[in-house]
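User: Hand in any protein.

Assistant:
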Amino acid sequence: MELFFHGLSYRATLADAERAFATVLHSPPYLPQSQQPWNFRVYLFSPKRNQPQRDHSGCGMLTLPQVYLGELLLHDPPSLSVAGRTIKVQRSTRAPPRSADIEKLRREPYVPPETRQRRAAIQESFQNTVGMHTLQLGWETRSGTFSVEWEKRLLGPGECNLAFSDTRREMRIRIMDQQDVCSIGILWSQISWSATAYGDEGHPAITLFLFSSPTFDIEKSGQICVRPPDKRQRQVLLYPDDADFIRVLPYTTLCIRLLCYGGGDLKVFKTLCKTAHLPVPKDFAHHAEHLGLFSEARLEQLRLWIKGLEWSVAFQLEALLRGRLADTKEILSIRIDYTASFLNFVVEAAPGIQDSEEEAFKTSIQRFARDFHWTPPSRPLNPRDGVFECLHVSLSPTSTKLEGPCLERSNRVMRTYADNQDAFIRVSFVEETTLQYRHDREIDGPAFVRRWVPPILKNGLTIAGRRFHFLAYSLSALKSHTVWFVRDEFIDPNGDLITAATIIERLGTFHGLVYDNSLIYCPARYGARISQAFTTTDSSISVPAEEIIIQDDIIRGQYCFTDGVGSISASLSRKIWKALHKRGSRSIRRAITYPRAFQIRLVGAKGMLSVDPKLSGDVVVLRQSMIKFDAPHSTDVEIAQAFVRPSKYYLNRPLIMILEGLGIPYQVFKALQDEAVQQVNDAVESLKMAANTLEQYGLAVSYRLSSTLHHLAKLGISPSDMDDFYHQMLTFSIHHILRDLKHHARIPVKDGYTLVGVADISGYLQEGQVFACATRPESNSIHYLEGPVLISRSPTIHPGDVQVVRAIGRPPVGSPFAIEPLVNTVVFSVNGTRPLPSCLAGGDLDGDVYNVTWLKSLHPSENKPPAAYNPAQKKLLDRPSTMDDVADFVADYIINDILGMVAINWLLIADLYNIFHEDCIKLCQVHSDAVDYPKNGTPVELSKVPKPQSDSKPDWNAPETVDLDSSPNFYESQKAIGKLFRAIDLPDVQTRNSTTRRRRQHIHDDAPDADLDEVFAALCIGDRHNDPLESAVEGRVEEFIDVEPHSRSVTFAVKSLDRYSLTLQGICSCNVLQSRKDAILSEEEAVVGTIAAKCSQRRRRKDAIAQIREQTGYLVKSVRDELSAPDDLSGDEESTDYDWLTTAWAAWKVSRHFKDRFGALSYGWIALGEVFDAMKAIEQGEMNSSRR
């Protein structure tokens, strides 16, 4: 609707008029609660010809997106005063506005005039460019010299320049090359520092030092704009015919030097940096030389040397080169017989070498070697025991990063070839920033990925002189674009020659299957079935083939009610649990009861097994829906997860958006968030409150920090008695929780559980009923859910993805649940027309977990019909698939991995409109298709994905790396998730970097006994009475043992700390989010299980945090096992609980002595936990003895 207005002061501007109308239209009664501010348009008529000094005539038109807004303004005119004059509004007599203009107003969010003005000013500033005539790639030596390793003299003035882009937040070197424009893109966030000065050549120079390599692309110049311009073609190699460029590219793209025409170019560059809020360039002139550090001769010399070394040693030397931690001259200067463990330490320590002497690297390595001490563990890691050490390779388009060895959970293949574990590597395809490759609408992504990925997958890659070939992937790893490679061939213990092909062949049969005859014709499905053998699992026990029973599924109409779930006898369940119990952590051992449900891999089947009390003996019942391929020889029951306790219930943004759309008011979510924030704030008040907070949010679980804090609280220790390390851990914990609340709306709900779903095969439950119960460890009881419960499954994206159903409560007498309650599961009915799991975001029962809450304030008043979630067709070939076809699918997956984009688009559109908007409903099926894509190979066409019709995004969608106060591209969301986002104040947290990390100290190899004697003496005479913590713990320990440390225990602890420290530093280096060479996580972050640094990719952070927690879990378990059963001390005798306490006490004392060493303080928390556990075990043993 359009209204005419007049009476506007001639002194008023268009912006003044807009603000006046916004004040009215964005307040009640015009704007309903939780709705985005109305967009509208104000147009001012030009002044009369005889009034040229005026900007307008004092009148104009107001265009509104809804008719009722105009009628409201006319019926009850508000007071609109600008610059002392009142604006009058009346109905327009002009023709109504075009429907396209009205639709545009409705589609786009309101942008305040000051924001538009700010955008325009920035765009105008960035029209300026920096002229340049020479591009140089090089290497900065430790003495500060810029070694020019490659250069290109460019065309004349105007043909080459450096430009800035605010929308892409990058600077771009543009080089005219006949009909093409070659570009080098440098993200602002990846600029470490820059310098401007006149160089040795007499030319003004700009030097850029980057955290990560730039990107290369080509676009056509002078395109005739009768059609949309072609997308830019991103390149792996900008100059593919230049052998020198290809040779130095992997090593020299972090130092870029630009020679300009005049001093004016330097001034423009400084001005553009200021506008972009980049650090001010330094006034510093580098001495430039052509040193040839990466000449063909030097690289070949290095390759020949490395190729002849042992694989583990060669890998670490290659890591130094590929990680751009040392140049060829430096690496060749250390040709001594070093161990792989030492060189792994060198890789971690190299970024910290600050000396500027010419021989700095060589002398530093010699010093490291003198100080380095390493004692191999008495029980080396073995894939058959569940954990192994794996080498990682990250491939970006221009560089290669080698990491490891990293601790990994085992899988079927690694257990099979446990004696050849070093033949396998994990390979990830990543962006130059080490983040995940993402779609860029300005780039022809499919063409680029096909130039980059398939050649590597099909032709293999060479690492340290060894050739590796693509093997397979796990479905979870595929999401992070990670796959397995294997050495071209190796000999197994039986003398067989093993290749990638023989490994796949031995897995089972994938063709001619009666139950899935088309499997071998679908590359995606073929790869998914192979991936079952690469799923991380724990081996438990073997089941004789005759005890594996195949049963038909329960099918009604078109639906399978037992999709992915079979049964297991109680006897076999206990035996599996006992097997896991032997090698599991003590947190598993403290479970109240054995699991009633397992997620498994067995023969060629995958899915869930739940206990069936009717089964006798050691029996497994597999449903037809579980069997994916034939592997009759693989009879080990492999456990992906044992469901021994309930998980906690958390809200998230999609669920909140759905519930708000179904009528749940914002105040309900705000109250839950306020409660969570209050608990976090209370954590600083006492150790007990801190422990409760860590337990609630699952932080520091690997280190069992909450348990140790409870023990310390019982000794009367208060936060004021704790050291800086504890307070920094607590700071990181609080920051982690608040960040999850702010950026994910991860709000805990105490009145709820997250439970794995299984089927009621007895048929007892009726349609709309569930049975759910969970263990309560604090009271050693079982909680039965009764009455209406809200049940959902992440990710929720359709109004019908949440349903209120009835939980039947305590098992009725005579019901099957009275015999076997299937604790820590939610049991679904097999009656009705459609299984409830399929209604919840298309779920099934092969391991999906469901969110269940009995909090009535979160229950919508009615259930909406669920989405259909029709399965997409499989993409089939006209011939059997090969591994080359699977490789092509991996590349296609990287191209078409748009699941995250679909989920975000749904949230953005729902934020602008509501969850019932037609585009939101369309996205539900699109999302389902994107989820199934890895299994059926049919990608979602990007053109069919509804997109927000606005360049402005809600504030909650801003990446952590964006400063909302200085960015004009985001608006304040009025939905609940927007208000919750703004309600959290998240201050920046200080993190350590390479220059402040604690020193590595090692017992000298040449005088270990003397050093150990010195340590032992220091521990004996140390004054602990000024330390309340040490005094309290010692007072408790001396009730059991002599607190004076034993020399053997001290020696054992020092060696144990050495191993732990080196491994922890590797974990902290491998899991950083920054691409800078010297980046490392702090010790406190590793303990908490978080990453404090900001990251633009939420999935990348989530994956890295999960990796840290898994790896530290393995590391801490190995230390606990060492301390609780010290083989080196007990000799042939079985160690006692007193030995355990003696060793743990010595380890804690040693950790405090070496408190300035990286890893020592976190090692101390492990040891302290063992001290308390050992004392508890002694007391329990004495109680048991007295009862006999």
In short: Confidence is low (pLDDT under 50) at residues 223-227, 993-1010. The chain has 37 helices and 46 strands. The longest helix spans residues 1160-1187. The longest strand covers residues 748-759.
